[in-house]
Specification:
This protein is mainly alpha-helical. It has one domain. About 80% of the residues lie in helices and about 0% in strands. It is built from 7 helices and no strands. It starts with a helix and ends in a 5-residue tail after the last helix.
Amino acid sequence: MESTVNFNWSCNHTWKRSAKNTAWCLLGCAIGDFGTILYFQITGIPWPVLAIMTLAIINGLITSIILETIILIRQNFKFKDALKTALGMSFISMVSMEIAMNLTDYLLTGGAILTWWVVPIMLIAGFLTPWPYNYWRLKKYGIACH
């Protein structure tokens, strides 16, 4: 109980670092997510919206894990350790980010539609949703992906 009371939510350094980590995660998720939605939008393949959005979420998770693994390898992690870290440390963040982005798309456009005005809103929702969790995890455990 005492650790909850004494937890510091006002550390500017940690907010900045967790914002950077969240942004990298967002980039990875957005590549797979938006790429999938755009593919179906361009090709006109008649899939149900829920199926497209589910595939977009899965692809977003995959591309985020790939990007984070590459970043960690460039920081001298061995491949196995980099992959394990990317999978374990930020999966909750990635899932919440993906759900927030796709729920925003669904609520604003009916789902699986990328337009010039919805993409920034999706990115903002995708960033803001996991950011406090990433701050908390970084502050409490010193754990970050990047």
